[in-house]
């Protein structure tokens, strides 16, 4: 039986860093008797939200409209079937904020400006420039692969030779895998605790066995 002269190992690494950016998904939703009223009132509420953000001197390139929906609201009535009870208009705005700046103030301003029409659909902390932490994750992944390969080679009575192939594992995304460790809202002061974002890396390495 022919003995293999190579060994292939996949290494994994993860590094974390406190996020510096918070992305908000803000919604405005109105239900009115007519489609025109619903649309106009939603537009007024969204303009009020945008005006509140402008007062915080946020860069306009950090916000974008990400959705607009118009639909009839219906309800079942005995003997009539589905009847229209009103009209719904919803619009969404995506805003990127600095966690070192006015994030908490911006959320409060948005809610005050839009009132009952505002919906906070979600928020996601992230790292604006993940290059450094991604490099740390790759370094740890390489060290993990090399350590395990050396151990397996030793168990087989061999040693590692030259590297023949290096490839990112298919399970590794080219973008950082960010996770939200903790986002906490207090009913009184509404602090945002973003925790840390983790970036993972995987590398598949083949060595020649000596």
Automatic annotation (TrEMBL):
Gene3D superfamilies attached to this UniProt entry: Protein of unknown function (DUF541), domain 1 (3.30.110.170), Protein of unknown function (DUF541), domain 2 (3.30.70.2970)
Any one GO BP annotation for this protein: DNA damage response
Domain of life of the source: Bacteria
Protein name: Periplasmic immunogenic protein
Protein's organism: Psychromicrobium silvestre
Record lineage: Bacteria, Bacillati, Actinomycetota, Actinomycetes, Micrococcales
């Amino acid at each position: 039986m022919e003995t293999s002269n190579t060994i292939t190992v996949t290494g994994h690494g993860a590094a974390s860093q406190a996020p510096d950016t918070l992305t908000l998904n803000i919604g405005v939703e109105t239900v009115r008797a007519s489609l025109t009223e619903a649309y106009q009132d939603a537009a007024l509420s969204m303009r009020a939200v945008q005006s509140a953000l402008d007062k915080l001197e946020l860069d306009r390139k950090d916000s974008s409209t990400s959705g607009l929906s118009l639909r009839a609201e219906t309800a079942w009535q005995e003997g009539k079937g589905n009847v229209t009870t009103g009209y719904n208009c919803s619009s969404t705005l995506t805003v990127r904020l600095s966690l070192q700046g006015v994030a908490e103030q911006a959320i409060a301003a948005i809610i005050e400006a839009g009132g009952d029409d505002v919906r906070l659909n979600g928020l996601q902390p992230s790292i604006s420039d993940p290059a450094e932490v991604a490099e740390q994750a790759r370094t740890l992944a390489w060290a993990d692969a090399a350590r395990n390969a050396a151990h397996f080679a030793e168990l087989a009575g061999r040693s590692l030779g030259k590297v023949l192939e290096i490839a990112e594992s298919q399970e590794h995304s080219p973008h950082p895998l960010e996770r939200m460790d903790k986002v906490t809202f207090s009913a009184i002061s509404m602090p945002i605790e973003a925790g840390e974002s983790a970036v993972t890396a995987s590398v598949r390495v083949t060595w020649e066995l000596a």
